[in-house]
Design goal:
CATH architecture of chain A: Roll
Order of helices and strands of chain A: HHEEHEEEE
CATH superfamily of chain A: Hotdog Thioesterase
CATH class of chain A: Alpha Beta
Strand order of the largest sheet of chain A: 1-2-4-5-6-3
Distance between the termini of chain A: 12 Å
Shape of chain A: globular
Number of strands of chain A: 6
Number of domains of chain A: 1
Largest interface: A-D, 27 and 27 residues
Oligomer: homotetramer
Largest sheet of chain A: 6 strands, antiparallel
């Protein structure tokens, strides 16, 4: 049943933000603050605010921080599509191509769901620095979705 | 020098087709006929015509054929951008996500170059069946580009 | 139940070869003949016999043929582990790194299952030319496994 | 010339550790302490010591931390092979498969160089928790190597 109804959960950005804070409070540690800017319609846009802790000597965001932001963005896009039933979704594959050294600034991840099926979701992610159009990295991610609850 | 001038080689679809036939005649064997539909502007669109030889019992295109079409499309997009200087480019990485079983029909690959630098080119490829908008596969590919010729 | 019993199906190389011929007769077309050399114990070794049809002008195996052999090998390793219950397994991701131009000769794929769970199997594949130890390519592949049959 | 001589730089684990501390002091922030346990012979073994900061509520290491350790390990293996000439090497691709939820404990990455050429290095990485043999993740990474210095 769930499979046919899950286009658009109606979860707002505020509701998704609250869900993330409730279930993953540790996400805001160890990197710049994560913010959901948009979600729904088969995608999401998330931002990592610049933070001295995440800067390399050259002043750029590290690979693990790009991974974190991309992974966060895909999870948010899945939640926006499937609702809280998908909280148990887990990353099974992440492929990242690093394209150019990011300039200092907030990092933005633009997520597009390529597929969201019964068991797997696949998304692509374009990462760029705020106010700079060039891609700094591109990722594709696969999530395993929790089995749908059985109707009694 | 080449790095600053290579946006747009001016090679037409006809010229690219002739180049491929001259250098890779064997590409047209073992699968449906490959056709370049568009190239340039940082991308390409290529088509694999349906052929009984490439059909699985269920009537769909096999994974290796999708790989072949995606690889062909990225190579064409690089040639359109860099010209014949890039004929020696070689695939170093191909990551494919298979999203749905393709229906019978011609297979189309839409290629977008994410980066074309001095040494590496990275592209993403969306594969779908002609007249059906849904993606059947998505790929990212990296090519190593030949070192630029030294000016004497 | 199946999950706890599926280490070792007892399918022999001969039985696996017969299964492949019955279910995928088209696999033997369009490339060098595929042969299962060993299977079981969490892996497999498969061979693609040299064939003029698969040779590029330089005399080497093409990328799509390496893809085909790697994909075949992973499928065989899964069947050896899970038995005929896994015939419906489908490739969801294949990531290939091309390392060196293969010399002429039979191509061998050595497959190792990294994980075989309830829903997903992940394997790595090392490809080399017969009698040459150097890797020509390396792949990781993910297969979605069919849901286990429900006990009535 | 350098290409033929660079098997084995003779850099010891102590020298590699000092190099990392000098050039990447920020690596030790934001995660458990990184330690080089072995390096050379075409590979490396590195450890991320357990740290409360990197634990998720369930007590396990996060994806970005696994990424960080894998990336660190590959870089160390390249340095051990190529010496300080490779300090400018940069990650261009990282593909990670997440296989099982890690138990609490130090995380170990075992790195094997699949290829180290003139321009690219490719490695595979097996991640497991100390004292537990099962893989928690597997990665393949590509680094672009700095062009060799020209002989005058």
């Amino acid at each position: 049943m769930a499979e046919h109804e899950d286009k658009g959960t109606g979860l707002s950005v505020g509701q998704l933000t609250a869900l993330m804070e409730e279930h993953f409070p540790q996400l805001q540690e160890g990197s710049g603050r994560l913010e959901i800017e948009a979600a729904g319609g088969g995608g999401a846009r998330v931002r990592m605010h610049q933070d001295v802790r995440m800067l390399r000597p050259g002043g750029t965001v590290s690979g693990p921080m790009m991974f974190k932001l991309a992974d966060f963005g895909v999870y948010v896009a899945i939640l926006a599509d499937r609702g809280t039933a998908a909280l148990q979704a887990v990353t099974t594959n992440m492929t990242m191509n690093f394209l150019s050294r990011p300039a200092p600034g907030d990092l933005i991840a633009q997520v597009k769901l390529l597929k969201i099926g019964r068991r797997l979701a696949v998304a692509e992610v374009a990462l760029h620095v705020s106010d700079a159009p060039d891609l700094v990295a591109h990722a594709t991610a696969t999530y395993a979705l929790p089995p749908p609850a059985r109707t009694p």
